[in-house]
Design brief:
The chain is built from 1 helix and 7 strands. Strands 1, 2, 3, 4, 5, 6 and 7 form a 7-stranded antiparallel β-sheet that branches. β4 and β5 form a beta hairpin.
Length: 108
């Protein structure tokens, strides 16, 4: 699991993030959800590389506990990237402003 936080002062542009992913050999696609949308717990057979373009989304990892013994959560905002290894169970909750993401599968 890897989270890379956006460090630039300006908001990310989808075109720039898409180009960055292509340079890494990925084939990204865009998806969006409205505020409060939920994804139930699931996993993938591939490594998921995801950039939040706009809005926000929270990923919950039920099998990884934090210091309080609760499921770990990862909040992503514009420009943040998450690399989720194959087989890691997760759910997601879209933030109040909705979310647009770029996602690609990385076979390893």
């Amino acid at each position: 699991m890897q989270v890379i936080r956006w460090q630039e002062q300006q908001q990310p542009l989808e075109q720039g993030l898409r180009q960055q992913m292509r340079e890494q050999g990925l084939s990204p696609y865009t998806w969006s959800n409205g505020p409060g949308e939920r994804y139930s717990v699931h996993s993938h057979s591939y490594t998921k590389v995801l950039y939040c373009v706009s809005g926000s989304i929270r990923f919950v990892l039920p099998d990884r506990l934090d210091e309080k013994g609760e499921a770990s959560a990862i909040d992503l905002g514009p420009g943040d990237c998450m690399v989720l290894p194959a087989g890691v169970r997760h759910s997601a909750l879209v933030g109040r402003q909705g979310v647009t993401c770029l996602e690609a599968a990385r076979q390893e």
